[in-house]
Amino acid sequence: MKRFITAVVLAICVVSFSAVRVGITQIVDHPALNAVFDGIVKAIEDAGFKVGQDVVIDRQNAQGSMQNAVAIAKKFASEKVDFVVAIATPSAQACVQAITDRPVIFSAVTDPVGAGLIKQLGKNTSNVVGVSDMVPVATQLKLIRKVFPNAKKIGVIYNPGEANSVTLTNIAKSAAPSLEMTIVDIPGTSPSEMITALNSIGPDVDVLYIGTDNTAASSIESIGSAALRLKKPIVAADIDIARGGGVIGFGFNYFQVGVETGQLLVALLKGAKTSDLESHVVGPDSLTLYINLDIANQLGITVPSDLLERANIIVKDGKEVSR
Amino acid sequence: MIQIENVTVIYNKGTLDEKVALRNVSLRVDEGEFVVIVGSNGAGKSTLLKLLVGDVKPAEGSCKIFGIPVISEKIFKNASIVCQDPNQGVFPNLTVEENLILARRKGIRGLGFGKIDPKSVELLKSTEMGLEETLKRKAAKLSGGQKQALAIVMAVSSNPKLLLLDEHTAALDPKSTEKIMELTQRINKELGTTIVMITHDMTIAEQFGSSVIVMEDGRICTKIDKSQQKVMASQLKAMIRSTVFTTTT
Amino acid sequence: MIPIIEQGLLLSLAAMGVYISFRLIDLPDLTPDGSYVLGGAVAVVLLHSGHGWVFSTVIAVLAAGAAGAVVAFITTRFKINSLLASIMVMTGLYSLSIRVMNAPNLPVPKFDTGKIMNYEQIVGKTPLDDLLGDVPASFEASGLKAVKIPFTNLGDGHDLLIISAIVLASIVILSLFLKTEFGTMLRGYGRNRFAVKVLGVNPDLFAYVGLIMGNVFAGFSGALFSMYSGFADVNMGIGTVVVCLAAVILGEIVFGSRQPIYGAIFPIVGALLYQFLLTFAMKYGYRIGFKPSDMKLLTALFVVAVIAARRFKKSEVTV
Fold this sequence. Notes:
The structure holds three protein chains of three kinds.
Chain A: H1 2-18, E1 20-26, H2 31-46, E2 55-61, H3 66-78, E3 83-87, H4 89-98, E4 104-109, E5 122-123, E6 128-132, H5 137-147, E7 153-158, H6 163-175, E8 182-187, H7 191-201, E9 207-210, H8 214-218, H9 220-230, E10 234-238, H10 239-243, E11 248-252, H11 254-269, E12 278-281, E13 288-292, H12 293-298, H13 305-310, E14 313-316, E15 319-322
Parallel strand pairs in A: 1-2, 1-3, 3-4, 4-6, 6-12, 7-8, 7-9, 9-10, 10-11, 13-14
Antiparallel strand pairs in A: 5-12, 11-13, 14-15
Chain B: E1 2-11, E2 19-29, E3 34-39, H1 45-53, E4 60-65, E5 68-69, H2 72-75, E6 79-82, H3 96-103, H4 118-126, H5 144-157, E7 162-166, H6 174-190, E8 194-198, H7 202-207, E9 211-216, E10 219-225, H8 233-244
Parallel strand pairs in B: 3-8, 3-9, 6-7, 7-8
Antiparallel strand pairs in B: 1-2, 1-4, 4-5, 9-10
Helix pairs in contact in B: 3-5, 4-5, 5-6
Chain C: H1 2-24, H2 32-48, H3 53-77, H4 82-101, E1 105-107, E2 116-117, H5 119-123, H6 129-132, E3 140-141, H7 158-179, H8 181-189, H9 193-198, H10 204-229, E4 231-233, H11 240-255, H12 265-284, H13 295-318
Antiparallel strand pairs in C: 1-4, 2-3
Helix pairs in contact in C: 1-7, 1-10, 1-11, 1-12, 2-3, 2-4, 2-10, 3-4, 3-10, 7-8, 11-12, 11-13
């Protein structure tokens, strides 16, 4: 019996010593960021590593506090953590500043260059690499023009306190003039503020656009209902947001972002160096076209047939069909 | 020094709560006088003091101190007031020493570290309340009588020309009251400070002060100069009792 | 261990500001939630403009102090309760900070970066391009330039030394100030405004001085934190006053009735304690199912434990 116990204890010690420790930090508990985490775990497991055995994850959550994000980064820096994954901009900024001797992988940061994480997309010589969740805003505006040829004023619903959303809105504002469109801000630092702004500014715009804003995502049902009441269509860049109340969605979902992030981690686990890997945006092949015909009918919108043919997900009569 | 001429003060003019607090009151107080004011509640005593510190303005008439009309921001540069609540006159979270250091002059301070004035300590000692031992103690820890003694010493440390006392012994026990009144008298006699004191206690009115003013219903009914006429506590009580039943509109 | 002390000390500066407003002058002030951010925002923007970190911090601190002056103005002039006035100013500072940074988040870059581009420029084409037409849709913005900060983030004690020196200097200056006649009258004002008036001084003066000082400390903390953490973010001030109050109360409990340096020691000890508690919860909390959001419960339990321990000690002395 004693020998058996000793053997088991030794085995556990060996396993825990040889297991790779990955610290994963996110700025707040939010479905989109949690989906990234899930995607990372899937990528790790798909590559054949067992989470909890080969790879031990220390998952930390800053609960919205920047100070906590920094404390977590410092904690990882001083512990025996082999790799660090930081989800969302402030967590990533804190980790890049605090950890210089180990790989840091960022995820769900729309503009990693502007956030000071890396010199440029592609390969870098530093210990930082990651996946940006930037969406093709200009293309989405072109999509709006194709479906709504008479749309001139595009109302962008976002939280001016989220760096990612501000970046996307700025890109939209620079792309709009050449498409003969004007961008109108519908801002809110909280869901209730957003709905108030939507109700007062919404009637004056033609189409509503939502990027990847976390605040909008967390209350998309109410925003969707408000938009329906105003009879304004929502075009979204995040497929999960589109599912919550959009007519058209063209983008990706955060689980995909997580999977691509996890694939970077897997490469590192297999021995690659961060300088070998490329920081990138989610590839165009992962972009999904989502069309909700029920809402389109409700709002009297005709979706061009060539677009319909290309759709990856169609919602009709309450049912979602993927192609 | 104090020149109140035909002053009328009305509270809440024009509303249902309108009350005439002072009616055509005239009073003159010379330097060095020790005036005691008595009267029943609502007679206008506190309003008179408020007039002197600029907390109320006369609807009619004028109130001048040192020849100029009272400006509430400026009056405390040359006058001090000690109220009924001993906690109001001192800084409870500062030590006795710090209280005295602050009180030795009026006006804004600088960034130096002040020194205590030995005269203030002497004055404290003269009250025989043991205060000279408490210099390093926080004022909040003193007894009511000690606090009031400190408040008075603070009030006169900067040598103000005028000292106003609003029932300053009303909250004290008889022993403390005695010591505080002795201190008050000494201040008037030795420092020459002009004092205007409100009191409810007729015995004090009899024993202290150079003149007594009896107020009723916003008017000054009587002014008795003690050098001309002896004042008895019983007399004063009777005066007040008799006028209490005068109907007021 | 070292980073915990570093962050605790950075927090203690903001806690000192809260101590000044809530305890010394007794004018509750919520502005630090906003002036903390303003301090960080101004400092980082100035760093980006090429200024040194000392100059940037000084200006940041002055900006934060100005916010305090506005609160003092509203409170004294319009006789509005300081808490209410501070909520108004704090809300305004959120927008102001975004204006100052021209973004809700600004990094403190260690290296020069390349240009910032949009998706289409990075990737080239998307699957729907054939359907959507040919209008070019490119976007470009200039990248960032590296800025110099005093912190190395190497965990070797270098940063700890700098932060400790700053906090020590602050506390020395503060305690000397509170010892002067002006500072003594400020302390007196906190408990008896009437007595200040009787001494021939307009009490409103101390409302200004106290609220300015309180926010100067908050802005100072925010500026240093931004440089330490590598970024300024408009959301980094949320909950500052609440956390600092907890720190002050923790400090008061530790010292009991004693008040070394007029109590200015409370925020320092309390903030360090708070940071240790927080880290403890983060490190081991998950084993018992704790979440960082349970921090408040932990704080309450800790406070009760400290009080109980002190009670127990007292009874030992009398026996």
